[in-house]
Amino acid sequence: MSEQESSQVAKAVKAVKPGKPESRLALVRRARRINRELSEVYPYAHPELDFENSFQLLVATVLSAQTTDLRVNQTTPALFRAYPTPEDMAAADPEALEQLIRPTGFFRAKARSLLGLSAALRDRFDGQVPGRLEDLVTLPGVGRKTANVVLGNAFGVPGVTVDTHFGRLVRRWKWTTQEDPVKVEAEVCALFPKSDWTMLSHRIIFHGRRICHARKPACGACPIAPLCPSYGEGETDPEKARKLLKYEMGGQPGQRLRPPADYPGKPAPPLEAE
């Protein structure tokens, strides 16, 4: 272990020693500092679903339930070639649609959602994805998480996306103790200006997928370890922790087949190349 790494570990250990309860002001400052640190670690943070328009993002987000963004990205090129518009998808043969999305799992339920939301877009919204949360959540298969993904990344409307990674990390950081996603969203939103919400979500999800894993977080390779009250839940040895890093942090391909130009890692392989 290098002298610099030893110093970082020592700071992290000191930072998480139990002391007096954290004040609201101290919590806000620590949360915002974590966001600033993550913005330096992941200046290229982005939604990890491939999409070209709001309809594609909506469909891809619905498909992402209970599977990886990688699997969705490997599945949607053929899907959107077959059904490029809501009108096309609403008229799809259910069995043909199911076969196209089968690799994402739960394909029968997802096909029903896609057929239903496409028909709703065609019949109630003139074939356009609405830009309001209250409209989006009326679509089959669309909840607040999906709505916030679409609003933040297709319409520029700030929103916090509470997926499993986001919820896990904000609880580890003691930003909230809530388990209910709606309550998590409300408490985290209260810590930040609205303009930060969308990028905050991307950074936290990136960090959860690459370093702060569910079962074995790479604490010893974590750049925000000194700010984390849960430091030590995972591997603290820097050398061992580095072996736990994923995607571009670990020299592996990312999840998007067509990542943004500033993404430093390798594109994901198409489905047939896996």
TrEMBL record:
[4Fe-4S] cluster binds at residues 212, 219, 222, 228. Residues 233-274 are annotated as: Disordered. Residues 237-246 have a biased composition (Basic and acidic residues). InterPro entries: DNA_glycosylase (IPR011257), Endonuclease-III-like_CS2 (IPR004036), Endonuclease3_FeS-loop_motif (IPR003651), Endouclease-III_FeS-bd_BS (IPR004035), HhH-GPD_domain (IPR003265), HhH_base_excis_C (IPR023170), HhH_motif (IPR000445), Nth (IPR005759). The keyword Endoplasmic reticulum does not apply. Transmembrane segments: none annotated. It catalyses: 2'-deoxyribonucleotide-(2'-deoxyribose 5'-phosphate)-2'-deoxyribonucleotide-DNA = a 3'-end 2'-deoxyribonucleotide-(2,3-dehydro-2,3-deoxyribose 5'-phosphate)-DNA + a 5'-end 5'-phospho-2'-deoxyribonucleoside-DNA + H(+). Residues 63-210 form the HhH-GPD domain. Its cofactor is [4Fe-4S] cluster. Binds 1 [4Fe-4S] cluster. Belongs to the Nth/MutY family. DNA repair enzyme that has both DNA N-glycosylase activity and AP-lyase activity. The DNA N-glycosylase activity releases various damaged pyrimidines from DNA by cleaving the N-glycosidic bond, leaving an AP (apurinic/apyrimidinic) site. The AP-lyase activity cleaves the phosphodiester bond 3' to the AP site by a beta-elimination, leaving a 3'-terminal unsaturated sugar and a product with a terminal 5'-phosphate. This is Endonuclease III. It comes from Streptomyces zagrosensis.
